[in-house]
Amino acid sequence: MNCPECDAKLNVPDDATVGEIVSCPDCGADFEIASKNGSTCQLKHAEKVGEDWGE
Amino acid sequence: MSKLRIVFDRVRSEEKMLEEKAVELGHDTKMIDAKITQISTESRRSDFDFGDVVLERCVSYFRGLHFTACLEFLDVPVINKFVVANNCGNKMITSLLLKKHNVPTPKTYFSFSSETALENLERVGYPMVIKPVIGSWGRGVMALKDRDVADAIIEVRELSDGPLDRIYYLQEMVKRPPRDIRAIAVGDQVVAAMYRTSTGGFKTNIALGAEPVPCEITKELEDICFKASKAVGGGILGVDLMEDEKRGLLVHEVNNTVEFKGLAKVAKKNIPKEMIDFAVKSAIR
Q1: How many helices (H) and strands (E) does chain A have?
Q2: Which residue of B has its CA nearest to A46?
Q3: CATH code: domain of residue A7
Q4: What tens digit of pLDDT does each residue of B36-95 get?
Q5: Of A6, A8, B65, B115, which is the most buried if we count CB atoms within 10 A?
């Protein structure tokens, strides 16, 4: 599948799961896998790192 | 077999390891995305599939904390409990609880305005460390080496003027080797520990590139971690310790949703298994 931002080819590993983040190798945009059906994924823009993120 | 649910907002290696191990152990396991889950005052436990026990693993502290409150409203057992998340999420509350329960901890001073923060610094003396009361991965942790640095950092805080910027958490700069210890406490056991060696600065967070090295779990380490865990309410916790030259081990932080990706590679015990076993046992109690 292609990057929704820059149309470069996105490499989504076969074992990637919903909630994981994939990054575009060309433009660097981060996407979250919103749903997955076999090899078809729906992506949404990943949240930015928040001030309260961490452990 | 138990019904185990893992609440997440971003799936990291840790959440994948927990899910894989839970499935391998034969538990009915599901991942629940907090971002798309809706709960109301009218909700009932039977409206959802929260299983027997939930492991709350959100990377966003406030999201996880508030989600935990909702789960407890629905009477769903959750690891960690709301009170524990609240105690660990705020460094000032953690420090107060550690001291109150006689857990060795660095001397920490609190001020509630910029003027008294500077007074505190002048009185106690430089260098000191300023930390945001809520925050992780070493974010906003700064060394105040002298009055000029303190003036600059406090001025920036006043300009940003977030509600928590008015709470000044000032900690002594502990004399220690350039490393700290991260121990993972699960219930009353320390299941793994590592040294985190600084890559140059005074911070030792793995998130900032610190090098993880296995650390022996001594009786002293076990005892202090157990006391620290008890002080904040217990559960699955990441206890951070410094080795003071004179006082020995000091606990400076206790983390509520502990990350263990690096440590899992070198630990003798299987960390995800220990966490799942604990969660399942907690639900039965």
Answers
A1: 0, 3
A2: B10
A3: 2.20.28
A4: 999 999 999 999 999 999 999 999 999 999 999 999 999 999 999 999 999 999 999 999
A5: B65
Check B257 against A55: CB less than 8 A apart.
yes
Asked whether the beta carbons of B85 and B63 are under 8 A apart, the reply is no
Instruction: Please give the residue range of the domain that contains residue A16.
Output: 1-47
Q: pLDDT band for position B181 (50/70/90)?
A: very high
Class of domain B108-172: alpha beta
Work out the average pLDDT over A9-17: 88
Task: Enumerate the domain spans of chain B.
Answer: 3-86, 108-172, 175-256
Amino acid at residue number B141: V
**ipTM of this complex prediction, to 2 decimal places:** 0.83
* Smallest Cα distance from B27 to chain A, Å: 19
Q: Is the pLDDT of residue B285 over 80?
A: no
Please tell me which residue of chain A has the smallest CA distance to B240: A55
Query: Which pLDDT does position B208 carry in this prediction?
Result: 66
Q: In what order do the strands lie in the sheet with B142-144?
A: B108-111, B168-172, B128-131, B142-144
Chain B nearest C-alpha distance from A34 (Å): 10
Which pTM was predicted? 0.93
A19 vs B11, B63, B139: nearest CB = B11
- Picking from B62, B255, B258, the nearest residue to A52 by CB comes out as B62
Identify the band that residue B242 occupies on the pLDDT scale cut at 50, 70 and 90. Answer: very high
Any chain B CB within 8 A of the CB of A30? no
Range B3-86: architecture per CATH: 3-Layer(aba) Sandwich (3.40)
DSSP per position, B110-159 = EESSHHHHHHHHHHH-S-EEEE-SS--TTTT-EEE-SHHHHHHHHHHHHH
Nearest by CB: B136 against A17, A47, A54: A54
Nearest CA in chain A to B207: A54
Q: How many domains does chain A have?
A: 1
